[in-house]
What does this fold into?
Amino acid sequence: MSMHPRTASSVVSLLLAAVVSSACGEDSLPLDRPQPAAFRPTEVPSSVELASTPGFADQSGGGVFASASGGLVRLRLDGSKGALEPHPGNTVAAGRVNAIFRLGPHSALVEAENGLFLAESGWVIAPPWRDALGTGVIGTAQSEDGAVWLAHTSGLYRLQEGTLAALKVNGGPLVGITAMAAAPAADGAPGVWFLREGTLNVAVATSATTYQVRGASAPLDAGEVVESMAGLGPAVGTSGELWLLTNKRLLRQTRDGWRQVDLGARPTQLLASGRFLWVKSDDALLLYDADVNTWGVASDLDTREFRFLAADESGCAWVQLGGESVAVSRAPVPRVKGLYQGMQVVEDGLVVSAVIPPGTAPQSVFFQVDGTDVPTTGPQYSLGGAEADGTLKAYSFAGLDAGRHVVAVVARFEDGTEATRTVPFDYQPLDTEPLSWAADIRPIHEARCAKCHTTTPGRPLNTYELWKANAALITAAVRDQRMPADGPMDPQLITRIQRWAASGARP
It folds into this structure.
């Protein structure tokens, strides 16, 4: 792999073993013939004309997109324009935007004419690893183990602790990738699937720093080729899934093996996020909800001129309908703040609230924790309630066992319909062993935080006293994967910071 001499030293190459297996077709597969129920979609138009390029949809609603004029725009849940400014520490402007990709729950990777940037919390940030890659991003994915992957015209990369690692097989880069999705491997291990030169492959971790690239088989008939793919995330008691769109049909791999899905006409576009899959087939727009195993089809929607832009984990898709950019969902689903899909929760208490989308106000809103109702009231809609002055209270998870759980927020409307947002998360109760700033936290600060948080441009955090005083802000920022600015932090380090803060923020 060739690299610019100034940046090659910052990229770590990982030598991978290749396990090759040929694709094998099958005469017959278990067949699903869904009977989609028609629904009248909720539509929220964008206040800004958007370009026909990939965008990023945030779990909290809205997202980051390229405008029709080539600029970068941040949209809110109601479609209005939010703040998004160049970070004061940037040394270069982004310029015209080519495309935007998901990097984390609340962060986007921006490819612009002047290179790669991150869009996060109202800032456009130039990360230090941006010089290692120019334009040419094909796609991004985040596997179940928290790894962030970038498919690029120059190869396949993993973004870990602010450093890009180039994955290689037999000393050569993995060029020629055309599609990528995060989903479990056939043995259930967390993996990232990619289509390379027409061949299906999956990369699986064999240790903390080593990955194995396996040639993968799919039940393809003669002359059948994969055109695109999508991955569904895991839920409580359920692993993720891989979906393939071929030139003939739609295939689905679950933990029980491959299945064929017959929608009556061959799909032409596929997009997934969280536990939802959107499919464009003929003139129909279909939505699959994996949690309840049901299909729906949007009614009264003209999809003759149609393109997916992005989708979020609530079951909302940003699309282009003719010349209009619209957020489409089955119902006006509430969004959840303070908890995101797949998050690891360490603290006993967490402030979690619901945000109601624009449109008809619900008659009532309530939470469910593992199916048990927890009432709440507006306008804060806090899971833990609120103080007399309006300050939101934390909800205690202390009664839960370690493992995966689910929080849902349900909006019930006057006509009897409901809209539900379900958020699976991992709860790992606090260890009794205390952590210290000097031994456990200071090394994290020096490796990941000091470049921005010693003096400027970020808030100074270079002493124990400053970390302790800002512990709540720091914990929230790393837990939500809004910081560090150069890419998501390793989940184990996030957990360490949370445990240190929750156990007394010792020196």
Remarks:
- The helical segments are 437-453, 464-469, 471-479, 491-502.
- The CA atoms of residues 97 and 492 lie 34 Å apart.
- The mean pLDDT is 85.
- The two ends are 45 Å apart (CA to CA).
